[in-house]
Amino acid sequence: MWIPEDARQPLNNESNLDAIDASIRQFGTLPSEALILDEDLPVMPLLRELRNQQLRFNGGRGALGRYKRVEVAHAAHLFETTQDKKLLEWCNQHGYILLTCNVKDFEKLDRHMNHSGMIVSRDQGYPASKPSDFARKCNQIFNDWRKHNFWDTIFTIRP
Prior knowledge:
By secondary structure, the protein is α/β, with parallel strands linked by helices. The chain has helices at 17-27, 46-52, 75-78, 84-94, 103-112, 126-129, 131-144; strands at residues 34-37, 71-74, 97-100, 118-121, 154-157. The chain has a five-stranded parallel β-sheet, with helices on both faces. The protein is globular and about 35 Å long.
């Protein structure tokens, strides 16, 4: 867990993102490369499976071209509550990729705002029913695409 339960910052319409950033710096910083799981996704064992994949963005030169490891964090570990737009804005501010199964809401946001990239599961139950398969498909996206290709792009995962 990145931020202790008692130190979570609420994320809502009144949220001050600078205060949230300060809280993250105080209690445990996220690295420059991160994948944030929306609160609608199951925490365990998906989080463990994604971390086991040791995700890395494609750097374009084989194994030597891989960026440093992408850390995986669940939004519920960062914030007490998460509103979709604020979460996407926060991810964008830090250049983090968002992983969600909330297709309808995030596709609507995609049409109205820029973002640093999203991976969306079209089957809401898939991440929970087959977390290792789902994590491998996420890993394949990171292996196939460079970080700059994620900008304003939605990658779709299907079983």
